[in-house]
Design goal:
With 108 residues, the chain is mainly β. It has a single domain, classed as Elongation Factor Tu (Ef-tu), domain 3. Helix content is 0%, strand content 57%. The radius of gyration is 16 Å and the shape is elongated. This is tRNA-specific 2-thiouridylase MnmA-like C-terminal domain-containing protein. Keywords: ATP-binding, Cytoplasm, Nucleotide-binding, RNA-binding, Transferase, tRNA processing, tRNA-binding. GO terms for molecular function: ATP binding; transferase activity; tRNA binding.
């Protein structure tokens, strides 16, 4: 990228429509919430009201406590108790109740 900086920079956001990459310090990689599309609640016909879960945002990610809030029939807002590193649009998020998968969706 040809950028000089006193500390390492990380890709924070890709804006493909503008042909732009946003870079920043590591602390900007941490997010406390994300939006989910293609929501599929395996154990419920639909998500009604807020629900406490553990959520994984990648394969080796340790499940983190979160609350899912429905936005529509197939969209939800996920709020983590603690900020999570590298929430990545286009990746899957999986929701657990203990060791049981109860749903998931695509990170927007």
């Amino acid at each position: 990228m040809g950028i000089a900086a006193p500390k390492p920079l990380y890709v924070i956001e890709i804006q493909a429509e503008k042909n732009t990459i946003i870079a920043g310090p590591e602390e900007e990689l941490y997010k406390k919430e994300l939006q989910v599309s293609l929501l599929n609640m395996i154990s419920l016909p639909e998500l009604i009201g807020n629900m406490e879960v553990k959520a994984k945002i990648r394969y080796k990610h340790k499940p983190a406590k979160a609350i899912i809030k429905p936005l529509s029939a197939n969209r939800a807002l996920v709020k983590f108790n603690r900020p999570q590193r590298a929430v990545t649009p286009g990746q899957a998020v999986v929701f657990y109740d203990g060791d049981v998968v109860i749903g998931g969706g695509m990170i927007d």
